[in-house]
Design brief:
Structural class: alpha+beta
Distance between the termini: 23 Å
Number of domains: 3
Mean pLDDT: 83
Length: 519
């Protein structure tokens, strides 16, 4: 018996030491959520139709390029009104073999209708897949940007299983406007060949009868003075096909231009470096435009071979160059986003919530402890020791799991206290029943724990399953409640059954003959 009790107490001590280690100091180990620490809560909507249009535009350019390369450039190439497809009119001399080849190679994901004009509409399942992927990519891009910004314990998750909304909670943020700009910024980088430049759009298109060539586009850029003030605009006719884009970036960081002003330098991955090197070698003396979010930042002349690096200039501030480098590293958003909801929680409100939550927890703990002492007498001390240990282990588990404690999480802690006492009540009532049936104290204690065990397991497991569903499908605060409740219930089974029984058996082992039990 003594050997059995020794390993039991050894296990309890080891678990308690680990819990205290991960619990202290509380302000370092226990991370507070948005509602306790203050910060911002955002609900964003990903405009998934942008991603669909981008896919359609990409297919249009592939079809145009393939047919033009074979000498059958199409006419009247345009997107259909709903944006889910496009139409084009092949030239009269386009052979059926060439057309079939292009459709099979480039339009496998489209439903194609043939006639005088060919209409290609994305299949419904493909549209759903593109929209779902846009939300997933947006989620990862926003998470990367927030992580690089340095926000601790952010909550970034999709709202609903197939929704187009993303919930972002950023505790402790003191500059919400800057974070919103970082999240909102598309930051899609492209380097494109420059056809010509003019001070007005009319002058730019004068040599092409006022029409934009099908393989080109008009993009504007600001003219800035030495102090960064915008003094006018320039218009650039650029090739639609990019030399390289943000997808070819390996890294981006803040640097300085030749005048010592803040700029952003970037390096390319091997594939991007090969493309960039080949293009710059063949176009020395030509201009290329650095386009960021459909706006020309600069259009330098290619002076020589450039392989794996470049620089973006544009009269940046230090913070502006750092932010641009950050979003370039994190990647471009696949679609634009719209802010649907914004809430700001002040630190004072968070501190007030913490104080009220702690007060509620302590008052609940004291009232429960007093009730157990009055109703169960000596056995109530046993229950209270297990209850205090339950609270210590729960805080230690939250610290070890690096979980975030929210106001609903505090509610989960308080509910766990009640569940822990409930388990002791079940055991104690079974012991009382066995004593009333004339069993000895030792047998009554043993039977009380063994017969209450199945009920305790049943109630705890069913509640844990419910908490897991809350964690899977709930938003940030609900997840906090689910985490503390799940961990607390698991600990409750340990303290109410294992620890409480160890205390009983230790007390009984000290007395050879025990005829009464204070319960």
């Amino acid at each position: 018996m003594k050997g059995k009790l020794a390993w039991r107490w050894g296990l309890i001590c080891v678990v308690t030491v680990f819990a205290v280690y991960f619990m202290l100091p509380l302000d370092k180990r226990i991370h507070l959520g948005l509602d306790l620490k203050g910060g911002i809560h955002l609900v964003l909507q990903v405009n998934t139709q942008d991603a669909v249009r981008a896919e359609v535009d990409d297919a249009m350019e592939r079809v145009r390029g393939d047919l033009t390369e074979k000498g059958f450039a199409p006419t009247a190439l345009q997107r259909v009104p709903d944006g889910n497809g496009f139409q084009f009119k092949p030239t009269v001399n386009t052979t059926g073999k060439v057309l079939d080849k292009v459709i099979d190679d480039r339009l496998a994901e489209f439903k194609v209708s043939r006639g005088v004009e060919i209409t290609a509409i994305l299949k419904p399942e493909v549209v759903r897949s593109i929209k779902d992927m846009a939300v997933r990519q947006g989620l990862e891009t926003i998470r990367n940007r927030v992580d690089q910004f340095g926000v601790s314990e952010p909550v970034i998750q999709r709202q609903g299983l197939e929704g187009d909304r993303i919930v972002v909670q950023l505790p402790g943020v003191d500059d919400p406007a800057r974070v919103k700009d970082l999240i909102r910024s598309t930051a899609f980088l492209e380097i494109k060949p420059v056809v010509r430049v003019a001070p007005t759009e009319e002058a730019l298109l004068a040599t092409s009868s006022g029409q934009v060539p099908e393989d080109s586009e008009v993009v504007s850029g600001d003219i800035e003075d030495l102090e960064g003030r915008v003094s006018g605009k320039e218009y650039y006719l650029l090739k639609k096909a990019s030399v390289i884009s943000g997808r070819d970036l390996r890294n981006a960081r803040r640097s300085q231009d030749s005048y010592g002003q803040p700029a952003v330098s970037f390096t390319l991955n091997p594939e991007g470096a090969n493309k960039f090197g080949s293009y710059t070698s063949a176009h020395i003396g030509d201009r290329m435009a650095i386009v960021l979010d459909s706006k020309v930042r600069s259009a330098p002349v290619i002076r020589g071979h450039i392989s794996d690096s470049g620089i973006i200039e544009g009269n940046f501030t230090v913070q502006g160059s750092e932010d641009l480098a950050l979003v370039l590293r994190a990647g471009a958003l696949p679609a634009s986003i719209t802010y649907l909801e914004e809430r700001t929680v002040g630190p004072s409100l968070g501190r007030d919530s913490v104080n009220r939550g702690l007060t509620a927890g302590l008052v609940g703990l004291v009232l429960v402890a007093v009730f157990m002492l009055v109703y169960y007498k000596g056995a109530g001390i046993n229950a209270n020791v297990a209850l205090v240990l339950n609270a210590i282990l729960l805080l230690g588990a939250i610290g070890a799991l690096n979980a975030t404690l929210t106001l609903p999480g505090i509610a989960g802690v308080i509910l766990t206290i009640g569940m822990a006492v409930d388990s002791n009540v079940l055991v104690f009532e079974r012991i009382r029943e066995e004593l009333e049936l004339g069993k000895t104290v030792r047998n009554a204690v043993a039977l009380g724990f063994s017969r209450a065990f199945a009920t305790i397991i049943d109630t705890h497991v069913t509640t844990i399953v419910s908490a897991l569903f809350l964690f899977q499908f709930g938003t940030g605060p609900i997840k906090g409640f689910a985490v503390t409740l799940t961990v607390g219930l698991a600990i409750s089974m340990f303290t109410a059954v294992f620890v409480s029984r160890t205390i009983f058996e230790t007390e009984l082992s000290r007395r050879a003959q025990t005829k009464t039990l204070s319960i």
